[in-house]
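Risk register update: the risk of archive-format incompatibility is retired. Evidence:
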Amino acid sequence: MVEKPRRAPTGAAVLQPRITAAVAEAVMDELAEHGYVRLSMEAIAKRAGVGKSALYRRWPSKQDMVIAVLSEFSVELADVEDTGTLRTDLMATLQATHAWFTHPRMSTILPDLTAEAGRNPVLAEAVRATIGAPRRALGTRMLHRAIERGELPGDTDIELALDLLAAPMFWRLNVRHAAAEPGYLDRLADHLLRALAAR
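Archived output:
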């Protein structure tokens, strides 16, 4: 006997992609304008043009909502293609990182979220697990490809190398508030290759 497809029970939540996308945009806008601490579910719902129930059907709390939205944007941006060489992989990664740091909304959101995570251990762990760890996993994959191609030593300190990839640009853009002028990413790539003892 062939079973008929099961229908969702009457009244079950149907998570429409259009509404989810509108909410995600509202989260980004509210975070950029008001910061994490002052963010409210009411403000998100109003900006997205939905009821609060639409938010709670998707996420149980403000933190879950923010982390879900930011992780989808941040991790997707870090997923660069295998270009075939370490230097071109590195340039693609630096360009993607620069785009993340300088995105009109993320350039405001990221420093605020970093500061708040320093005061909120639960938020810090959520950011690490859902944004930091997946982004670092993509970087790890890139570095392992370079080791397999013989471009990096087999004993390369992967964790230290990952810190080196993002730290100079974060310091320049978010601490010094200096611009990445034309040619900066190329020069940074060359310095990183020397620091990593690339062959």
